[in-house]
Design the sequence.
C-alpha cells in the first residue's frame, strides 16, 4: 500500500510548511477555493517541485485531474479501458460492474462531463497503482454518479487522496480529512473531528452531521 | 489580429497560398513554398513566438526517424513537417480572424465556422499551458516515456478543436462574429499572388 510523506513543504505563497503522512484508506483534503488543495495534490503526485521541504511518494501513482478529457486517447471508451486493463473482456466486465455498458462504444470525447470524469477515475485506478490521487472527483456529477464514485473508491484496497470542496462527499467517503486554509493545515482527523474546523472556514456542513 | 500585426492577408489569398504550397510539396518542389513562408511568418511577427512549437513539432519525428531510417530520411521528413508549420503560420497568422467570419458569411456559411479556423490557430499558441495538464492526466493513467509523448497530441488536438468551436459559437451568440465588410485585397496579397505565379511558371518551364 502506497505511502506519502510530505515534510515541511513550501511552494511560493501557496503552500506554507505543510507536513502530512498518508498511508492506506481514503484521505480527503478539504478547504475553501484557493487554499492550496490542488497544489498539494500536484506536489504529492510529483508534478510540482516544492521550493522547500521533501516528499516521499509511491512509485506508481494513478491520478485524475480537473479536465477528465485529457486522459483520453482512443476512439471508444471500451478501447480506452481495454488498453489499460490489458484486454477487451476485462474492460467489459469493469464497465458492466459500474453499469456503464451503454457507453462502451461511445467516443470518450463526446461523453458528458460526469461520464467523462467517472471514466477518467476508472482509468486512473484500473492499472492497479499503489496510490490514487483525485482532484475534485465529484465536480459535475449528479448524486447517482457520486454514489458510483463512492462505491468504486470504497471497494479499492489502496491509498486514495482526494481534494474536494464537496464537503458532503468528503465527509461520507473519507477515513481521514485534512483541512487546508491559506496554504497551511488547520485541522486533521476523522470526519467527525473536523466538523468544527470546516464550520469555522464557512464550508458547507451537511445536516446529517 | 493574431500576433498583434496590422498587416493582413486576404483569407482567399491565404487559402490559395496553402493550396499552392501543398501542391508544390507534393510535386517535390518544397523550396518555393519555403522561400515565401519564412519571410511571411517573420512578417506576421509569429515566427519567434512559435519557435517552441516548431521545436515540439520537429524534434520527435527527427529522433524517431533518425533511429529507424537514418539521418537523411529524418532530416527530409522533419524539413517537410517544419515547412508545413511555417506555411500555416504565414497563411493563417496573417489573416484578420474576423475576415474568416466575413468570408464564411459571403459563402452562406455560419460565421462561427469561419472563426473556428483562426481560433484553432490562436489556441494552439496557448497550448503550452495545457501540455502540462495533459501530461499529468496521461501519467495518472500509467503512461510514461515515449508512449506518453506519442499519445500526447491526441487529447491536445481534441482540446484545441473543441475549445475553438465553443469560443466561435460564443462569439457568434454575442453577434460580433458577422462583420459588415468583405475582406479586401492588400498590396501584400498582390505580392504573394505575383510570387505564386512566378514560381509556378519557373517550375513549369524548367
Sequence:
Amino acid at each position: 500500500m502506497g505511502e506519502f510523506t510530505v515534510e515541511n513543504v513550501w511552494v511560493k505563497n501557496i503552500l506554507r510548511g505543510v507536513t502530512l503522512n498518508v498511508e492506506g484508506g481514503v484521505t480527503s483534503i478539504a478547504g475553501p477555493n484557493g487554499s492550496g488543495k490542488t497544489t498539494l495534490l500536484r506536489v504529492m503526485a510529483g508534478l510540482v517541485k516544492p521550493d522547500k521541504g521533501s516528499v516521499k511518494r509511491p512509485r506508481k501513482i494513478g491520478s485524475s485531474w480537473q479536465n477528465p478529457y485529457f486522459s483520453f486517447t482512443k476512439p471508444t471508451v471500451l478501447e480506452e479501458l481495454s488498453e489499460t486493463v490489458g484486454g477487451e473482456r476485462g474492460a467489459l466486465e469493469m464497465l458492466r460492474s459500474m453499469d456503464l455498458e451503454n457507453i462502451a462504444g461511445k467516443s470518450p470525447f463526446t461523453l458528458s462531463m460526469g461520464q467523462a470524469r467517472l471514466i477518467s477515475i476508472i482509468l486512473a485506478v484500473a492499472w492497479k497503482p499503489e496510490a490514487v490521487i483525485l482532484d475534485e472527483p465529484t465536480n459535475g456529477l449528479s448524486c447517482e454518479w457520486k454514489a458510483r464514485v463512492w462505491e468504486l473508491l470504497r471497494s479499492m484496497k489502496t491509498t486514495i487522496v482526494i481534494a474536494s470542496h464537496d464537503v458532503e462527499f468528503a465527509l461520507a467517503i473519507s477515513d481521514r480529512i485534512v483541512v487546508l486554509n491559506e496554504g497551511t493545515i488547520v485541522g486533521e482527523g476523522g470526519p467527525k473531528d473536523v466538523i468544527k474546523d470546516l464550520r469555522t472556514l464557512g464550508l458547507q456542513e451537511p445536516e446529517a452531521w | 489580429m493574431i500576433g498583434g500585426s496590422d498587416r493582413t492577408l486576404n483569407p482567399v489569398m491565404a487559402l490559395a497560398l496553402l493550396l499552392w504550397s501543398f501542391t508544390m510539396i507534393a510535386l517535390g518542389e518544397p523550396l518555393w513554398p519555403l522561400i515565401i513562408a519564412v519571410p511571411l511568418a517573420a512578417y506576421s511577427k509569429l515566427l519567434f513566438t512559435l519557435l517552441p512549437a516548431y521545436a515540439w513539432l520537429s524534434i520527435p519525428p527527427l529522433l524517431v526517424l533518425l533511429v529507424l531510417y537514418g539521418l537523411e530520411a529524418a532530416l527530409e521528413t522533419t524539413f517537410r513537417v517544419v515547412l508545413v508549420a511555417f506555411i500555416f503560420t504565414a497563411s493563417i497568422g496573417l489573416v484578420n480572424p474576423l475576415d474568416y467570419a466575413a468570408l464564411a458569411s459571403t459563402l452562406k456559411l455560419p460565421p462561427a465556422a469561419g472563426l473556428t479556423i483562426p481560433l484553432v490557430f490562436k489556441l494552439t499558441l496557448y497550448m503550452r499551458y495545457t501540455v502540462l495538464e495533459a501530461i499529468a492526466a496521461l501519467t495518472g493513467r500509467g503512461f510514461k516515456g515515449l508512449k506518453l509523448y506519442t499519445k500526447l497530441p491526441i487529447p491536445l488536438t481534441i482540446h484545441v478543436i473543441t475549445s475553438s468551436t465553443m469560443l466561435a459559437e460564443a462569439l457568434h451568440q454575442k453577434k460580433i462574429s458577422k462583420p459588415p465588410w468583405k475582406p479586401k485585397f492588400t498590396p501584400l496579397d498582390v505580392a504573394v499572388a505575383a510570387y505564386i505565379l512566378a514560381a509556378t511558371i519557373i517550375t513549369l518551364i524548367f
The interface with chain A takes residues 130, 132-134, 136-142, 151, 154-155, 158-159, 162 of chain B (CB under 8 Å). Residues 97-182 of chain B form one domain. The two ends of chain B are 39 Å apart (CA to CA). Chain B has two domains: 1-96+184-206, 97-182.
